[in-house]
Amino acid sequence: IFAEGVDKILKYNGSINFYMVFGGTNFQFTNGGDQTLAYHPIITSYDYNAIITECGDTYPTKFKAVRDIIAKYLPLPTNPNTGIITKRFIWYTSV
């Protein structure tokens, strides 16, 4: 559904903004929650299935889908920087 929406917007020469194109976190005093039928607390992270994660990784399926759709309407660089970086993660069990 997401990819179809992006494709339709670009097909009709529309503008699109990916908010947030990457996740971000605010651990200050602005946390909250949503309320549909019941209150559900939400942590203060903007990493809601963004195209790029907070640490710069891509969500491969979503990122590739968006990139492929954009390529239908705009030329992509001939030697694009894919942003793929080999990273090593360390988890701390205690501090």
Automatic annotation (TrEMBL):
Question: GO biological process annotations for this chain's record?
Answer: carbohydrate metabolic process
Per UniProt, residues of the Glycoside hydrolase 35 catalytic domain are 3-72
- An example of a Pfam family matching this protein is Glyco_hydro_35
A GO term for molecular function: hydrolase activity, hydrolyzing O-glycosyl compounds
| InterPro entries for this protein | GH, Gly_Hdrlase_35_cat, Glycoside_Hdrlase_35
Q: Which family does it belong to?
A: Belongs to the glycosyl hydrolase 35 family.
This one is known as Glycoside hydrolase 35 catalytic domain-containing protein
Q: Which organism is it from?
A: Rotaria sordida
Native organism taxonomy = Eukaryota, Metazoa, Spiralia, Gnathifera, Rotifera
